[in-house]
Design goal:
Elements: E1 13-17, E2 21-25, E3 29-34, E4 37-40, E5 43-48, H1 52-67, E6 75-77, H2 85-89, H3 91-94, E7 98-102, E8 105-106, E9 109-116, H4 119-128, E10 130-131, E11 134-135, E12 145-151, E13 154-155, H5 168-175, H6 177-200, E14 203-215, E15 218-222, E16 231-235, H7 251-257, H8 273-291
Antiparallel strand pairs: 1-2, 2-3, 3-7, 4-5, 6-7, 8-14, 9-12, 9-13, 9-14, 10-11, 14-15, 14-16
């Protein structure tokens, strides 16, 4: 599979090019094409990761189907044969990495659920005893399981900007009390349900972020779901409380970038061949474990 960094479909109207996805307007629907672009610290890096777009699409499809009993989602199909005729002309770039989806108005928040204390949450806790303004028990250890999982919303950043954690009260001001409560409850239910499925396959989902939209007055799940770009995956058999964990997700790239003298502003640095290969291997492995 060729690495796809950018798509060009002249017959279709391009309405968005995000950090990873190219979005085309098909009238009543959207065509979301997941490229092999990778971003870290909200900067798009020059290199693509082989098979990344394929993995993100297949994993999202898997989880959308698994969670449709909890909340509806925007996925119509990932099958080129079921898409408009124009898509078949571009089969070589769309196959396996594209989704035909319902249109919805996105809510302006990321719905983050943390099942374990790690990453920025762990750093915050060490400084303040809190995570995103939520007071936690004393003497928690790094990577410790949080009971119950925490819901910590964030604003959605533009390319080159950083997501910002916000309080639930701030989220209420943005979307309203009733909607905020529904989004929180859906996010926690999805995380809890999927974390159980993953754990039975030997994978811990440490945390994840989700996006929701409004379609005809109804909340639906949109974008991607429980991929290595939106979640932290750890091996259950290697898990040890009190230390950082080996990560089967984008954290592997972030860890490498942290060793560089880089100010985390665009342009991003080139990734070495071995980092690209290892990242691709991790993405494929987590997909195979979870979807088998």
């Amino acid at each position: 599979m060729d690495v796809v960094l950018k798509t060009e479909i002249p017959e279709l109207k391009l309405i968005g090019r995000g950090k990873v996805r190219d979005i085309y307007d098909l009238g009543n629907y959207l065509l979301i094409v997941t490229t092999d672009r990778i971003s870290a610290f909200d900067v798009i890096l020059p290199n693509g990761i082989p098979y990344k777009g394929y993995v993100l699409t297949q994993l999202s499809k898997f989880w959308f189907e698994k969670t449709s009993h909890i909340v509806k989602n925007h996925l119509i199909t990932t099958d080129i044969e079921e898409m408009p005729e124009i898509c078949k002309k571009y089969r070589n770039i769309l196959e396996g990495r594209s989704m035909l989806v319902e249109k919805a108005k996105p809510y302006p928040v990321e719905c983050v659920v943390r099942g374990y204390i790690t990453g920025s949450g762990w750093k915050d806790y060490q400084k303040t005893g809190e995570v995103c303004g939520i007071k936690l028990p004393k003497n928690l250890k790094e990577s410790q399981k949080l009971e119950p999982p925490l819901f910590t919303p964030a604003t959605k950043a533009e390319i080159g900007e950083h997501d910002e954690n916000i309080s639930f009260e701030q989220m209420v001001l943005m979307v309203g009390q009733k909607t905020a409560e529904k989004l929180r409850d859906y996010a926690i239910k999805i995380y809890t349900y999927c974390a159980k499925i993953a754990e039975e396959k030997g994978i811990i989902i440490a945390d994840t972020k989700m996006e929701f939209g409004n379609k005809d007055g109804e909340i639906i799940l949109i974008d991607e779901l429980l991929t290595p770009d939106s979640s932290r995956f750890w091996f259950k058999e290697k898990y040890k409380v009190g230390e950082p964990q080996e990560s089967m997700d984008k954290q592997f790239v972030r860890n490498y970038l942290e060793t560089l003298d880089w100010d985390k502003k665009a342009p991003g640095p080139e990734l070495p061949k071995e980092i690209i290969e290892q990242t691709s291997k991790r993405y494929l492995e987590i997909m195979e474990i979870l979807t088998k």
